[in-house]
Design goal:
Elements lengths: L16 H20 L7 H8 L6 H4 L3 H24 L6 H18 L7 H6 L7 H27 L9 H22 L3 H13 L9 H5 L1
Helix pairs in contact: 1-2, 1-4, 4-5, 4-7, 5-7, 5-9, 7-8, 8-9
Length: about 220
Amino acid sequence: MNEKPKVAVARGRRPSPAYAATRDVLIRCGMELLTEQGFSSTGLDAVLKRATVPKGSFYHYFANKDAFGAAVMDAYDDYFKQKLDRWLLNQERAPLDRLADFIADASRGMRKHRFTRGCLVGNLSQELGALPPDFRERLDAILVGWQERVARCLKEAQAAGAIPGTLNVEQLAEFFWIAWEGAVLRARLVQSDRPLVTFIEAFLSSLGVRAQASPRNEADH
């Protein structure tokens, strides 16, 4: 994979707290906008306006829009992995319940933002022809990292005897994210989290598990 773009900093110096804080604000605003719309349709002016950062300052933090986009993807990946770990590593819940809890949390998030925000990775994947060539590898690597977390959770379910040991958990984890992106897209289309509920129920059913593993969804409606 290509190396992550680096922001030029004077040799021997570390970025000041103000520098890091402003860069973080820009990245956060970029994440918000890219979960709402595509990379191509997100102009720098919109990012700078939301971040209240002068236009001339942007290039102090990023070489160009592509470098900014790569930094936003990395930040989103870190954020999403933390979210996955919060739910999928919860030892107080059975492995399959953890997957259902993650979906319930995603449902709450989409409702909170009135279904204006989707998955940044899914959004960017729909416009690959207009993206820098290395973005394709970055997006795929992000999904692989997410798949590994779901696969580990499914392996725990196998170890607990909750699902058959003959199931290919790596393949199921890949399928999980393929179906997830479609469910998120449909949820935004219909302005309802029902596609997410349908997704997790169907996924659990494919494992031979009944949908009672997702009780928290009922309380969220």
